[in-house]
Amino acid sequence: MKKLILSVLAAGIFLSACNQSAKTAKTADSSATQPAEAGASATSAGSMVAATKANAPVMNFDKSSYDFGKINRGDKVTYNFKFTNTGKSPLIITSAVASCGCTTPNWPKTPVTPGQSGQITVVFNSTGKVGLQDKMVTITANTNPAQTVVHLVGEVVEKK
Question: Is the pTM of this model over 0.85?
C-alpha cells in the first residue's frame, strides 16, 4: 500500500514538472514573437536612463580626506569639506551620516546649482578617544553614484 501511494505521488510530481516546462516554453515563444515596437520602446527607455545619468549632478570635492594631525584627548576638530557641482542639474544632498556619534556633519539644505560651490562642515569631538582615528561621513545625494564618502583622520593623544 505504501509503495502504491509513493508511486502515485511520484507520478504526480513528474507530471506537474513536465507541465511546468510546457508553460515556460510557451512564455519564451510568446516573448520571441513580440512586435518590434515593444522592443523599440524598451530601447528608448534604456536611452532615457542613460540621458538622466549624463545630466546628473556631480559633486567634486577639493579634498575628500582631511588629516588633522595629532590632537589632545577632549579637543574638537572642525573641517569644511568644500565641493563644487560640476554636473548639469541641481545637486540635492539628502543626508550626511557619520560613522560614529562623536562626529557631526552639517550640509547645505538647499539645492546647489551647476557651477556653484558648497561645503559640508564636519565636527569631530575627541572626548573618550585615543589613538588613530578615521571618521567617515557618507553623503547621500542625487548624484551617480548616490553616495560619496569623505574622511577625517588623525591621532588623539592623552593630555600631558
Answer: no
